[in-house]
Amino acid sequence: MSSKGIYSALSGALAQSHQLDTIAQNIANASTPGFKTDKNAFKEHLTILEKAPDVIPVPRIPASIESFFDMEGTDKSFVDVDATFTDFGQGGLKATGNNLDVAIEGKGFIEVLSPQGSRLTRKGTFSLTADGTLVTTDGNPVLQKGDGPAQDRLIKLNSGAPITFNQQGDIYQGTDQVGTLSIVEYEKNDHLKKIGHSLYAPTDTNIQPLANPQSTLQQGFIETSNVNIVKEMTDMIQATRGFESTQRAIKAYDEMDAKLVNDVPKLG
Amino acid sequence: MLKALNTAASGMQAQQTSLDTIANNMANVSTTGFKKSRAEFEDLLYQTIKEPGAQQNKNNPHPTGVQVGLGVKTAAAQKLFEEGHVMQTKNPLDLAVEGKGFFPIQMANGEIGYTRDGTFHKDAGGRIVDKNGYPLIPEIIVPPTATGIGVEENGKVTIQTSGNSVPQQIGQIQLVDFVNPAGLKSMGKNLFMPTSASGSPLQGNPGENNLGSVAQGQLEGSNVNIVDEMVDMIRTQRNYESNSKVVQAADQMLQFSNNLR
């Protein structure tokens, strides 16, 4: 068929359904502590040039309308999901009163030891293991500041004196300092990849964290997700309606083709 | 097929768990020594469609990749051992632990359970038992001649007898603490059992080794705060609703597709 535009419409439909998948993820995690909203970036994919490269936009004689409006394929461009990125904006703080809940105010992350190695998280809902190691709800040990290997930087607490975290991440039990949380803060968080379980992994190990993190810790609070339900709902309406429009376009192309196949031959 | 449907379903399931937890907290708002729970969520794995840093053309790697998350799951139902408020009852065998620690109780099967519920009674033999009839460990037997029972802050149990002005010690209440009380398993009947996550029991006299002290004539109420639970319930219900809207939207999209021909 001559109507290649049907594929542009199809690419639009695929992009909108991808958008809905992302919105569903955001809404499903609206009550996950420390969750950060995902967003999509779309781009247009130019189709290959349909004209010979020697057609330049300067009109020759005789000038035709096409010489002035040289689209170079943009009139039939596809849309493609170019990137998902994470909005690392601060979530709200919710008071829990539990002294093993900490929320980060600022751009920082808490370093934890996952089975795959050192990872970062914003979810500060900690608990203790039987031997007093400070762990996340998944049982990944929380690490303290230091240069040694991650296995040597676990935080051991004992039963007894109440545990306090100060704003810089120093951990006290009673009046004794037992360690300092490893707070990792980057200038930009673009290289962090979500790996599930509320963890982030840096994709580029060459990027060094800031020497003086500005983030502060708040004990007795958890950071709620930064998902904005109103925004997600409007985006969802937009995605469904966008999807509907592309379906209309596909249908229109279909009808055009139907005419071409059924009606045009009858004319002769 | 749209991933959104399953993602939203996982979100609805998570909110159901949250509501179940809230319902249990609210139902136990006046249960002595009850400790509330909280459902905690985390995001599920991500499907990576395009790796960050993949080559886009000869010179330019993609600065960011394309990832779609697949939903949410309940990571833990964490018990919160904040202290509940203390109520005055004036009953001599109502005991509250002020601070950390549990009363050890010997259950019917011989195992030791732990409770914060200090509503004790005497059984027919004068033994101090909890409201299910399980004895407090170590066993304390109140002789029938006693006219009054006193429990001191350090757990010392004394009795008064007629004709004797000096109280006599008949036993010593001990408290037990755990490194990680949140790892205890709820057994119902206000009892907790140790698990591999809670650590082994650390027994001692009240007031020593960071253990709390015992307060006579008082009971610890539950630590459920109805206002908090109500707010959480509203949030849970609305989040559930949002997720159901996503299901509707996904359904609508599929309907559009089906109407194509």
Mean pLDDT of chain A: 84
Total strand count of chain A, please? 16
Rg over CA atoms of chain A: 27 Å
Mean pLDDT of chain B: 89
Structural class by secondary-structure content of chain B: alpha+beta
The low-pLDDT segments of chain A are none
Total of helices of chain A? 4
> What is the tally of beta strands of chain B?
19
For the sheet with most strands of chain B, the description reads:
3 strands, antiparallel
- Judging from the principal axes of the Cα atoms, what is the shape of chain B? elongated
> What assembly state would you assign to the polypeptide chains in this entry?
heterodimer
Q: Percentage of helical residues of chain A?
A: 10-25%
Distance between the termini of chain A: 19 Å
Given as residue ranges, the uncertain stretches of chain B (5+ residues, pLDDT < 50) are none
Global geometry of chain A: elongated
Order of helices and strands of chain B: HEEEEEEEEEEEEEEEEEEEH
Walkthrough of the structure:
The complex is a heterodimer of chains A (268) and B (261). In chain A, helix 1 (5-28) runs antiparallel to helix 3 (229-262). Chain A has four helices and 16 strands. Chain A has 268 residues and is an alpha+beta fold. Chain A starts with a helix and ends with a helix. In chain A, 25% of the residues lie in helices and 26% in strands. In chain A, the strands form six sheets. In chain A, strands 12-5-6-14-13 form a five-stranded antiparallel beta sheet, with no helix packed on it. The model of chain A has no long low-confidence stretch (mean pLDDT 84). Chain B starts with a helix and ends with a helix. Helix content of chain B is 22%, strand content 32%. Chain B contains two helices and 19 strands. By secondary structure, chain B is of the alpha+beta class. Chain B is elongated, with a radius of gyration of 27 Å. Chains A and B meet through helix 1, strand 1, strand 2, strand 13 and helix 3 of A and helix 1, strand 1, strand 2, strand 3 and strand 4 of B.
